[in-house]
Predict the structure.
Amino acid sequence: MLTDRFRRPINYLRVSVTDRCNLRCRYCVDGYFPFIPHNEILSYEEIIRFVTICAGLGIRKVRLTGGEPLLRKGVEYLIRSITSIDGIEDVSLTTNGVLLEEKVETLKDAGLKRVNVSLDTLRRERFRYITGFDEIDRVIRGIEKALTTGLKPVKINTVIMRGINDDEIFDFVNLARNLDVEVRFIEFMPFGEKGFWDEKRVVSSESLKKRIEEFFEIERDSSSEKGPAVVYRITGGKGKIGFISPLSTHICSECNRIRLTSEGKIKPCLFSDVEYDLKGLMRRGSSDREIEELVIKAVREKPEKKDERGQIKKCQMNLRHIGG
Ligand code: SAM
């Protein structure tokens, strides 16, 4: 088993398969949107080799993300390949949902069992304002099709930003009442150098939960899998809601993950700029043993928490590079 210096078991790998995206969410990209050249992105063979090595060390869960993972050609092949790696028990995907309706059946055939869809608003104009594109209908159809195709669970990730979409909290709770989905409210994190983030836009999970409890009866769901979200059932509802609180709580103590960026860097912590160059090592013809040693080193160097003061430092990169 892979364990870090703070005795946290590390069994979860998030892989960013591309930096490209078909949306331009304001909080993720700022105007300038350069792509990493194709040959600088890890090939599927390189990703599969890396996941196989990680599985041998104790990684059990893999999540594909991006950029927008469904934009990368042949992502079904990657899912099929990773699903069949010895030791990998769970393969999941995080998507903006735009291409989900057309791809969900082939994704399921490839072995995908569940999906997370990012959606910050249920209103057409606002969707266009946040993402730059008029694609809300396709995203909603994608969510519905994921449900009818039998992916389970279908989770909806919603970043709540004061003054932008915090007037839709109850609409999202109602969505989780009416559909068998888990809506997870995520605190707005400070990513990107000169982005859209502003402390004033942050709505803490605690205040959100208080507002919800004034109108809905919710009850802690102890059956939910372990993870960063604290999950609640809604009385009389089909789905659930959850709160992910990277700013206001110490989720770091339960962190079980490392990341692989689309450029082939191992990133032990989302909130730190420290990275390890896997691609360089692989492309110099290194052995599996050398790659294992890099993974073990990256895990050993995983910081205990956000930083000494428990603050999140502003990251150099936007989430589309890191893999949100
Ligand atoms: N394209 C995919 C998607 O939309 O899910 C994967 C990449 S996207 C960067 C992953 C997630 O990061 C999305 O749910 C997005 O809302 C979230 N995200 C991006 N910037 C964020 C921020 N500053 N705070 C919190 N979540 C953020």
Residues 27 and 196 are 5 Å apart (CA to CA). The pocket of S-adenosylmethionine is lined by residues 21, 27-28, 65-66, 68, 94-96, 118, 157, 159, 186, 188-189, 191, 197, 319-320, 324 (CB under 6 Å). The first strand starts at residue 12 and ends at 16. The chain has ten helices and twelve strands.
